[in-house]
Structure prediction request, 333 residues.
Amino acid sequence: MKRVWQFISVWAVALVFSSVLSHAAVRRLRIKADAKGYRVFGSQAGKPVATLYGTSPAFDGLDWDQVADFLGGGIDNWGIAGSSASEWEMMQLSSPDTPRTFIVVSPVDLNDYYLGDFRAQIVPFVKTVQELSEAGADWSFSERMLSQYPLTFIRKLFPTAGRSDGVMVGIRIMLLKLMGRSSPHDEVGVLRPTFGSIGPNMIKERLTDYDPGRLRRRLELMRAGCQGKQWFDGPKKHALLRMVRWAAARGKVTLIVMPMSPIYQREFMKPMATREFEQALADAQASGANLPMIRIDKLPVLHNNDVFWDFVHLNMDGQKIATAALLTELKKL
Prediction:
């Protein structure tokens, strides 16, 4: 009996120590562990005139303070790091109505094989099961998505659970900083979910500044993040269709498509994936009456690795070009 209590005591001490160490690692390595954070772009006075749904490519790529000034009021947003339409839909159902809605998407946002780190905290389990059934997802994909739910409970004690990439990348950045060799934006983005820029993008770094080793490493990490697969006809697309219908029934809704870097296009958007992505956009546009779609991704000047700071995020120069193009299109509308 004495040995049993000794074992329990050692186990309890180890559990507490591991939990404390995990929480400390999250803070020290700056790993995003909170699901969401409310913010308003532009004017803070009065009720917001628009609601924005998007993730970091939308925030790094467009200056929403300028858009808010153009509209004459604030634009509210639930910033969910590394999110997609699956999470945005849940926020849409509980957010106050505004007369205008912006939904910003990209190939990364609509590829179901990129799973949002906080999906299970926001989307109910039963809803996920229903969506997987409706989309005809295979067991391998379904198991991967459903396994996020027990993980949310484990993360109460161990917030680093399931975030090994973030831990390894964080340690690497910390060590490089100690050697004075790191970039302030090295290895972030898809692997370590971020909210993206708020207002003007101040990142001057260019994708063409990457050395060959860093480029290969980032490509492999990004490929591992989606298992090297693209799927644009799953739960994310169907959530987007529902979002468009909901918003169109309550006011104006605009769908904005953000560009990816030429390197990303070459490595991940093969002809079949491109066709499926375009079909998802066409279905979304058809689901809302008179839904305008602004194709920032079609601007030739943005088909240049110099205007991206990584594979999926525009840098300061890219944001200026994209924002000017968006405002021009909004004036036409």
